Amino acid sequence: MIKLDSVTKQFGAFAAVDNISYEINNGEYFALLGPNGAGKTTIVRMLLGFIKPTSGRIIINGMSATDPKSRQYVGYLSENHMIPSYLSGLEYLLRHASLIGLSGKDAVVEADRVLETVAMKGEERKKAAAYSRGMKQRIGLGAAMLGRPKLLILDEPITGLDPIGIREIRTVLENLRNNGMTVVLNSHLLSEVEKTCDTAGIMYKGKILVKDSINTIVKNDETLEDVFIRYIEKENE
Ligand SMILES: Nc1ncnc2c1ncn2[C@@H]1O[C@H](COP(=O)(O)OP(=O)(O)O)[C@@H](O)[C@H]1O
Ligand SMILES: [Mg+2]
């Protein structure tokens, strides 16, 4: 589904992403873990074609990430996602539906489907101003799922939510597992992903230290900090 081949992104002399290669298979639930500034969002922006790698290649669904067609089956939730406070969840979803070419009854039916998926049925007519952060985030996730994308890219989907909000998003993500969707998410929180994802990459200062199954990467009772220290020490051996 996704292939990064020796990808580097320089901002001036600084390499935010430094010669990274990995693959994500169809149906995989992948978490990219790393502290703030590691380069996670920079990878997402390259996956979505917002910026181009300085060198290397990214292939999505058999196409170069620089080809807009590669994004046809991709849904995206940005970091610090916001909904204008004067729109209801439904109005927000209908605006997004129009961006993927749905209108009239088709748009309403599709908005209704995603409202169900993100457990926001019954709340869709309230203005976003009245939503909790978790509810706004679930509407954002719903917008990313309009049109049944095969690949969902989520940048810090749970960061900043309270424990109930976290559990609600996690439940939505776990339910998607049965739909054969590929999910790629970024996080700086280990607890957020260890229950949801199959595989993880540990990113630090632009490099991927490891990409493997969660069970291999996280030993019993370890925190993300413990995992980092273990891999960084291994790097320095
Ligand atoms: N457009 C840019 N210009 C210069 N530096 C940038 C730009 N975008 C990101 N960076 C830098 O690249 C590094 C990685 O950023 P980012 O990918 O946002 O990290 P993360 O998402 O892991 O927190 C940071 O040091 C950030 O300041
Ligand atoms: Mg980021």
Protein model, in words:
With 237 residues, this protein is α/β, with parallel strands linked by helices. It has helices spanning 40-47, 89-99, 104-117, 133-145, 163-176, 190-194, 214-217, 224-235; strands at residues 2-11, 14-24, 29-33, 55-60, 63-64, 74-77, 151-155, 182-187, 199-204, 207-213. It has 8 helices and 10 strands. A 6-stranded mixed β-sheet has the order 6-7-8-3-9-10, sandwiched between helices. Helix 5 (163-176) links the parallel strand 7 and strand 8 (182-187). The two termini are 34 Å apart. The structure holds adenosine-5'-diphosphate and magnesium ion. Magnesium ion is lined by residues 40-41, 79, 155-156, 186. Adenosine-5'-diphosphate (ADP) is lined by residues 11, 16, 34, 36-42.
Number of helices: 8
> In this structure, how is the largest beta sheet organized?
6 strands, mixed
C-alpha geometry: globular
Tell me the radius of gyration.
18 Å
**Assembly annotation:** single chain
Portion of residues in beta strands equals 25-35%
Task: State the low-pLDDT regions, or none.
Answer: none
Mean pLDDT: 92
What is the helix/strand order? EEEHEEEHHHEHEHEEHH
Which ligands are bound? adenosine-5'-diphosphate, magnesium ion
**Percent range of helical residues:** 25-40%
Q: How far is it from the N-terminal to the C-terminal residue, by CA?
A: 34 Å
Number of DSSP-assigned strands: 10
Which structural class matches the secondary elements?
alpha/beta
State the strand order across the main sheet.
6-7-8-3-9-10
